[in-house]
Amino acid sequence: MSPARIACTLLCLAWSSHAAQIGDKHFTADDLFQMTHIWKVELTFTPDQWKHLPAHRVSGGSGQTLLGAPGLRNGLTGAAGMTFDWVHADLKIDGIPFHDIAVRYKGNGTYRRGISTGKVSLKLDLNKYVKGQKLAKLDKINLASEIADGTYMNEDISYRLFREAGVPAPRTSYARVYITITGEKPQYYRGLYSLTEDVDESYIDHWFHSHDGALFKPVMHAPFTYMGEDWKNYVQAYAPKLDLTDAQKRSLIEFTKLVNSGADADFNAKIGDYVDLDEFARFLAISVWAMDYDSILFNGQNYYVYQNPKTNKYNFLPWDQDETFAKVGFGGTRPPDLNILQPYRQGGGKFLARMLAVLAFRSLYLKYIADYNGNLLRPDRLAAMVDELAPIIRPAVKEESPDALAMFDAAAAGDSFVMPPWGAIRPLKPFAEMRSKIVAEQLKKAQ
Q1: Contact, 166 vs 399, CB < 8 A?
Q2: What is the arithmetic mean of pLDDT over 36-58?
Q3: Do residues 197 and 172 lie in contact, with contact meaning Cβ atoms separated by under 8 Å?
Q4: Which among 70, 156, 416, 437 is placed 20 to 30 Å from 241, CA to CA?
Q5: Which residues, including other chains, have CB under 8 Å from residue 389's CB and lie 6 or more apart?
Q6: Is residue 68 included in any domain, yes or no?
Q7: pLDDT at residue 159 is higher than 80
Q8: 144: β partners
């Protein structure tokens, strides 16, 4: 999707007040994903359904940090040999019922933290058990617990920035989530969640106007590692989300060979045949400026790659943005000085290093960083986003707990706060002030 169309969509819809009620015939996803109305989400489970939500062990694990055991989801949970089961439940959103939906827990680090506090992220599938049941033509939605983000705003603002930069990123809204366990526990408030667009067929249809293409969710410290000529070696680490053709499988293998062993001249000449360089420059510029360590930059996860069938080129899509703005690794003590020319883990593979060594790509990437640093990511602009969003969601945070409210109020004011187990956290306002100046200095040296 073109940057102009994304910008127009945002300008017209993303922060407008909702025009349609959820039960209206013409209710759309754009009506769902807007920030001035917090949806009331009510989930009802039987005791048996509720009992089967937590992760359970199905294998001995993979022995690796983030790669799941064969056939399981990737991440810490799958690597430990654990999986989540879908259970049946009933759903109401602002009083509109959806019967017999599928629900499962989601997450890795957030799941481990959430299961001990009672607030876990959820994935909802309205179509799994009742075919044709959808919400604004969507099969699935995600409810992110924000358990790792005391500001409740990092993910939503980050996705907005990606979209404004011309990167197709999930749309979001907020929801108060209530749980009922029939005959056992009456309805209670679980907390404020981010309601997030799922990266699936509907997502591809919306952003790319296509029902085809290849969609991957890679997990590897060294992105695009070559694993030989047998496609079976790639399935777990690249986690394809759509059925693949032989040509799409072959294309990925050939791409990894180019990344890992292609001569510099070949890499420079051919990389544009595989990667949408303009889109990736925008994606990388936002990722690096925002210093999201739990991403392609360091942990090698939390992003999707879509091979657009119209171009046969890879587009990069962000995911799971609650760790943005240097929350992990820098927190509230160190200056946010990630080097824009080496924004990746030492020994983290060749892909990013080789991309930034291609002069044409490097120039494009630096142009976007400079442009965003002076416009899209200006500290006063980001502070205004916080000030705009904070009063909308504060009542729902207050209802959650006094501790949550104390962290939220500090973050909204721009004050550091302590968030166990991470320690001192520097929120977006002071981060943006420091990061903007550091990036400006780095850009001078990069010219």
Answers
A1: no
A2: 96
A3: yes
A4: 156
A5: 35, 153, 156, 157
A6: yes
A7: yes
A8: 194
Residue 124 lies in a domain: yes
Asked if the peptide bond before residue 309 counts as cis, ω within 30 degrees of 0, the response is: no
Closest CA to 271 of 262, 385, 330: 262
Rounded CA-CA distance 218/406 in Å is 37
Query: Can you tell me the distance from the alpha carbon of 85 to that of 376, in angstroms, rounded to the nearest whole number?
Result: 41
For the entire predicted model, the pTM comes to: 0.94
Q: Give the SS3 label for residue 235.
A: helix
Q: Would you say 315 and 305 are in contact if contact means Cβ atoms under 8 Å apart? A: yes
Average pLDDT over the chain, rounded to whole? 92
Amino acid letter, residue 77? T
pLDDT of 324 over the 60 cut: yes
* Number of domains comprising the chain: 1
For residues 17-48, one letter each, b for 16 or more C-beta atoms within 10 angstroms of the residue's C-beta and e for the rest, the string is ebeeebeeeebebbbbbbbebbbebbbbbbee
Of 67-76, 231-240, 435-444, least confident by mean pLDDT is 67-76
How far apart are the C-alpha atoms of 214 and 309, rounded to whole Å? 8
Mean pLDDT score, 274-294: 96
Does 4 have pLDDT greater than 80?
A: no
Domain-embedded: residue 27:
yes
Confidence tier at 447 by pLDDT (50, 70, 90): confident
Residue 9 CB neighbours (<10 A): 16
